[in-house]
Amino acid sequence: AQTVTQSQPEMSVQEAETVTLSCTYDTSENNYYLFWYKQPPSRQMILVIRQEAYKQQNATENRFSVNFQKAAKSFSLKISDSQLGDTAMYFCALNSGGSNYKLTFGKGTLLTVNP
Amino acid sequence: NAGVTQTPKFQVLKTGQSMTLQCAQDMNHNSMYWYRQDPGMGLRLIYYSASEGTTDKGEVPNGYNVSRLNKREFSLRLESAAPSQTSVYFCASSVAMNTEAFFGQGTRLTVV
Fold this sequence. Notes:
Helix content of chain A is 0%, strand content 54%. Chain A contains no helices and 12 strands. In chain A, strands 2, 5, 6, 10, 11 and 12 form a 6-stranded mixed β-sheet that branches. A 4-stranded antiparallel β-sheet of chain A has the order 3-9-8-7, with no helix packed on it.
């Protein structure tokens, strides 16, 4: 079975500062994909960033970047220059192949950006 | 661009009633999923369909049934609703099982 663990239920950051959200995972597969999703109060699930396990280079999307440590099975999300609109629930997710095809989510981290 | 469309957006049921949540995607995706979201639990997979004609149980399938009607549509049925099924339900789809999923806007279901 694959698992995703987010150990920080809530975090807060001041506007314009940088914050890092943690995620660890477990899978027996070698080929897999990792994602961070954002869920604002509107409830919509929005893809923030994705990382393929076979790529060593960390993915980056504007102010969002990841620190992917494959050996440690760690996949943290860094948000730079935090904005009020970044306030949301953030979910880490794992999608692995083999006989265990499914998208598994962590329990989420509620991030609040303070003015 | 409609993406993934779920209906209804809100629903209140009495215990024992049945209902079907509808989901349709217009992105020609092969795989579709149903999740439920509860406070402190994240999203938990109920059922998924890797491709048209196939369905498989996820983490919490009890009390639910699904139908992959065609490539576009994947419905979730509650035969006899229970208060424990009060939740927000999300339908999602992806090109393949190893790519990112796109989500509908969710259905808030309350069973009283």
